[in-house]
Amino acid sequence: MADAYFFLFFLLPLLLLVVLYFLVKPRPVKIPIKNRHVFITGGSSGIGLSLAHRAAAEGARVSILARSLGKLEEARNAIRLVTGIEVAVFAADVRDFEAVKRAVDEAGPIDVLLLNHGVFVALELEKMELSEIKFTMDVNLMGTLNLIKAALPAMKNRKDPLPASIALVSSQAGQAGIYGYVAYSASKFGLRGLAEALQQEVIADNIHVSLIFPPDTDTPGLAEENRRKPELTKIIAASSGCMTAEKVAQKALDGIKSGSFIVSCNLEGIALSLATAGLSPQRSFLMAFVEVVAAGILRIVALGMQWTWYGSIEKYHSQRKGKCCTKGY
């Protein structure tokens, strides 16, 4: 019996760790930020502005892009006031490839492309206008493709031999579909497929892709989102909590520097990432070990989460029907 326990709890895990050490690809990498060009979209407020502050403070040459030149100037002044560092600003709509290309060319070769832009409309699909759906997809998905396509040639031909990075800010709604997030989740799930395929295309050029999954974040946009957010969406999304933009930026930049493909920002995010690891790249053999060992348990946890969510949906609709019947009576 003792031999069986020794094999099960020591030799088998040790053997698995050895196998995973040689199995995981791409291999671990460190991506330096200091004295390198970090280009951040959606950089005039929220997570993007916090990322710009942190990158500048760590000695990076920072460029930020957003639609509003006025907000960009305010962001530049705020960063200068705190860090004493001047950042470059570029006004462009990410949906416009030619405008994006001009901004990227003017900014110069990019070492870290941080795609943080995004729009969000929380509403049931039936109630959304087609224009809102198209706007969400064009900004969140096509805008990301526009930036990558514009920046990639120079990133591939850079003279700097150090590893480069392309980081995409997704959302926990890009890991699990949530009531009221049909268009938003579709655009954010799309980023995952983009990132997984892109990593295979650029790995030979020493470019490393990161996919960041923040929860609800306390930004100027969140208050606006909450005005239209369906009640059921608030109930379900509340389980993941809310983070400050500064904390998300810290987690994101740390993940980028460590070359992580999946970057989670809180405990719920780590659980979601483990549960949805699938065919995503994993550089750390230790994290790969956790993914393998925890897979079955996390599937049970995921089923429990679905049970809770669908329970909330059933309860909500039952209460609404009850109120309707009372009014009818």
From TrEMBL:
It is found in: Endoplasmic reticulum. The chain crosses the membrane at residues 6-24. Its main location: endoplasmic reticulum. One of its GO terms (cellular component) is endoplasmic reticulum membrane. Pfam families: adh_short. CDD domains: KDSR-like_SDR_c (cd08939). Keywords: Endoplasmic reticulum, Lipid metabolism, Membrane, NADP, Nucleotide-binding, Oxidoreductase, Sphingolipid metabolism, Transmembrane, Transmembrane helix. One of its GO terms (molecular function) is 3-dehydrosphinganine reductase activity. Its EC number is 1.1.1.102. InterPro entries: KDSR-like, NAD(P)-bd_dom_sf, Sc_DH/Rdtase_CS, SDR_fam. One of its GO terms (biological process) is 3-keto-sphinganine metabolic process. Pathway: Sphingolipid metabolism; Lipid metabolism; sphingolipid metabolism. It catalyses: sphinganine + NADP(+) = 3-oxosphinganine + NADPH + H(+). The keyword Transmembrane helix applies. Belongs to the short-chain dehydrogenases/reductases (SDR) family. This is 3-dehydrosphinganine reductase.
